[in-house]
Amino acid sequence: MSRQELISPEGLRVDGRRANELRRISCRASVLNSADGSAYYEQGNTKVLVAVYGPREPRNRSLAQQDHATINVEFNIAPFSTSERRKRSKGDKRLLEISSFVKQTFEGAIQTAIYPRSQIDIYIHLLQHDGGTLETCINAATLALVDAGISMMDYVCACTAGFIDETPILDLNFVEESSIEVPNLTVAIMPRNGNIALLQMESKLHSSKLEDVMELAVEGCKHIHRKLDQAVLVAAKDLADKLSN
Amino acid sequence: MVVEIEPSNIEREFLLEALEKGIRVDGRGIYDYRTLKITCSPTYGLVEVQLGQTRVLARVTCEVTRPFPDRPTEGLVQFNADLSNLAAPGLDSSSGKPSVQEVAVSRMIERVIRQSRAIDTEALCILAGEKVWSVRLDLHFLDHSGNLIDAASIASIAALRHFRRPDVTIDGEEAIIHDVNERNPVPLSIHHTPICVTFGFFGSNGDLMLVDPNLLEEQVQVSSFTITLNSHREICALSKAGGVPLAPSLIQRCTQIALTKVDDINDKIQEALMA
Questions:
Q1: Which positions ≥6 away from A120 have C-beta within 8 Å?
Q2: Cβ separation B238–A180 shorter than 8 A
Q3: Where are the domains of chain A?
Q4: How far, in Å, CA of A50 to CA of A77, rounded?
Q5: What is the DSSP letter of B6?
Q6: How do residues B123-135 score in pLDDT, each as one tens digit?
Q7: Residue A23: how many CA atoms within 13 Å on its side-chain side?
Q8: What is the set of domains in chain B, with CATH numbers?
Q9: Distance (Å, whole) CA A99 – CA A109
Q10: In this structure, what DSSP letter does residue B180 have?
């Protein structure tokens, strides 16, 4: 397999970004009517839609926990999300893995103790896939949970970073992500204290380079935090306007 | 459904109080692994690993298949983890849907070995576009006493290194697969040996740390973190999901500790394979 050049001699990446540049982010809260909270989140060409229901009575009584809320995450990839149409089964290990990562992340972020004997459902749909699935899912879910008014310790902001030709790069797209030579690090932080809520890495990276790559990813998370905050503000203003009229 | 038995409050408190004084319930040091025992059977590719009470059986087999059309020169490597009720109560294997733990372990091993390209898949090619070896790794968890991932990664690497596949000679367009009794079987070509090291975190901020949590510690811990390294000091995978968020400085410290652990474990695997 011929190796594709991922960084041009001018220092530009395949989609024209610089090494430390994020893709364009646009997001909006309250996009669905029936859900308690919802969000639409775009990062470059990756697009996700999230609906949050709850806290509500658990579907299945046996799932109810006496001292905290149960969190249920369902993750779905639309068959039309990639250039080749493909339907994935519900039991696909990769889908289950991503939904369990999202679930575990938010179990630590949501103040589940104040919603005993209830269930919070997070439904994530990936509409278009261009790399960074886990990061966009977490960011979108954060926005939808804030929109639903569910108490959380803090935002959870996620970002990916990699390492090509001795340079750490931020926010991998699909081409970069699928190149087996590029390590793919996903970090989710709580921006207020900078603690790490989720950390996943694939492929190889020398242990001495980890710090630089992680630092870059954390910078990206902070930028994403500002974007999410703005979206929350817009949604809140919108609601306030509606109330005053 | 059988529910996993949670440790009692008094057990939790005892464990935490002891840990604050730097003592672990099973008498180990904070950064000590449990006794690691690797047993290689006379059959190629069948290895049993015992990490304290945790027991994992790894079996590597191979067969000849047709390669994927987009990768005609690459062999296949498949992973399968079987976490049944045999290993511990509360694991439900009857529903047909793989459990969360099963997915976590098998995906982790898959990521560690496949994504870091530990196995040379091109060396598994017999005839490009026609025939390749398909190597299959089955993990069976026999006894669950905590830290399945580390035990599984050790078993996987040991089994892959122990495995021998039948030798092949190519005669024009024809491939002859020699019987094991006829010609010495050949080992797989392995680039590097990634090993997982798992840390458990305790206390409200996760500032108490230990290596290789056992079942009780796993149930009490507030967060866990798995780092995978090979002998070239390269990180092959990191995994931390859920639990209390951790300070970035802890991650750096874990890396340093894991580096020494990985060397020890690799030596032990080497020793077991030589025996």
A1: A52, A53, A54, A55, A56, A69, A70, A71, A72, A110, A112, A145, A150
A2: no
A3: 3-244
A4: 12
A5: P
A6: 998 988 888 999 9
A7: 24
A8: 9-274 (3.30.230.70)
A9: 15
A10: T
Give A147 to chain B, closest Cα distance, Å: 22
Contacts of A193 in chain B (CB under 8 A): 245
Looking at residues B217-246, what average pLDDT do you find?
A: 88
> How many other C-beta atoms can be found within 10 angstroms of the C-beta atom of residue B22?
10
- The pTM for the full model equals 0.87
Contacts for B34-37 with beta carbons within 8 Å, 24 or more apart?
B34/B212, B34/B214, B36/B154, B36/B265, B36/B268
Q: What is the 3-state secondary structure (H, E, C) of A87-114?
A: CCCCCCHHHHHHHHHHHHHHHHHECHHH
CB atoms under 10 Å from CB of A36, counted, come to 19
Indicate the residue type of A7: I
DSSP state of B100: H
Give residue A216's identity as a one-letter amino acid code.
L
d(CA A136, CA A146): 15
- Cα separation, B153 vs B263, whole angstroms: 14
User: What is the distance in angstroms between the Cα of B57 and the nearest Cα belonging to chain A?
Assistant: 22
**Contact flag A189-B100 (C-beta cutoff 8 Å):** no
Residue pair A71/A103 in contact (Cβ under 8 Å)? The answer is yes
Whether the Cβ atoms of residue A215 and residue A187 lie closer than 8 Å to each other: no
How does pLDDT run across A14-31, given as a tens digit for each residue?
A: 888 888 899 999 999 999
Output the CATH code of domain A3-244. Answer: 3.30.230.70
CB B163 within 8 A of CB B45: yes
Q: CA of A202 to nearest chain B CA: how many angstroms apart?
A: 5
Element (H, E) at A234: helix A210-244
